[in-house]
Specification:
This protein has 274 residues and is mainly beta. Helices cover 12% and strands 32% of the residues.
């Protein structure tokens, strides 16, 4: 008798469970991502060469650019910019959003149809953005999502690009700007104003504002400044080197007027050598 009651209870429970499951909406798998494949009409180097010292609003609808993503703002050290690279050059694209690493993965192919955008420069470094309404800036951030969707097209995922190996000072030149590089045997020169961390992290309790940090290195005598945001996740991490120490550093090479700078994607990309 007791055994029959137990069996009945189990059967009722199973019936209820089946009813609950069958009454729920069936889970629908998300549509697979089918990225477009487009044919570029010019290289990044050719496109950047269109800039002759004054901003250019792009009106040609036939231009298609292609590059692979080499930047990530996951750690907060890249801010509202996407860097891409092809076989000829690198390019900074100013996008007015944060969390870009969620949409544009390292190694992913990106196509750009730059009509309605503006090719300009900041600190004599060419960049692509929206048309600026401020005279002091040649480009602005591409803010409107509709414009982002129309001009920045996500292509296939792919392998991350390996860094360009920089082994001599002469290799640090205009052709390497906005490209993913590794500075080999970089010699530490010290931090600006004696700063021992990568940047100055905000501390409201002490009244400290976030500020960029600058750590200087030399490769074969050529100076490069590692510039780090005070909002980077590793802003308050100790550099951990003394003047004269040697390391390999990987990041995105940029330029501000005559100063070459390196942007770290993560602090683990600094490898101190024995």
């Amino acid at each position: 008798m007791l055994r029959n009651i137990k069996i009945s209870i189990v059967l009722v429970a199973m019936s209820i469970a089946f009813g609950v499951v069958s009454g729920c909406k069936k889970f629908t798998e998300p549509e697979p991502y089918n990225p477009p494949v487009m044919e570029p009409t010019m290289t990044l180097a050719q496109f950047k060469a269109m800039y002759k010292g004054t901003p250019i609003e792009i009106t040609d609808d036939s231009i298609v650019l292609e590059g692979k993503v080499i930047s990530s703002d996951r750690t907060g050290n890249v801010y509202r910019s996407l860097y891409i690279e092809d076989e000829t050059a690198g390019l900074e694209v100013k996008i007015g959003k944060t969390g870009l690493y969620n949409d544009y993965k390292l190694g992913q192919t990106i196509y750009i149809k730059p009509k309605y955008l503006c090719l300009g420069a900041y600190g004599e470094s060419v960049q692509l953005g929206a048309v600026s309404v401020e005279e002091k800036y040649e480009t602005s951030y591409i803010d409107a999502q509709e414009l982002i969707n129309r001009t920045i097209i996500r292509g296939p995922y792919g392998e991350e690009l390996p860094p360009h190996e920089i082994t001599s000072g002469s290799m640090i030149n205009e052709s390497m700007v906005c490209r993913y590089v590794r500075l080999n045997n970089a010699v530490y020169q010290g931090g600006a104003d004696g700063l021992r961390t990568w940047a100055v992290k905000q501390d409201a309790s002490l009244g400290i504002e976030a500020a960029y940090g600058q750590q200087t290195f030399k490769v074969d005598g050529k100076e490069v400044v590692v510039r780090t945001s005070g909002y980077a996740a590793f802003a308050d991490v100790e550099v951990g080197m003394e003047t004269g120490d040697v390391c390999n550093i990987t990041g995105i090479l940029t330029k501000f007027y005559d100063t070459y700078q390196l942007v770290l994607l993560q602090v683990e990309d600094v490898e101190k050598l024995d």
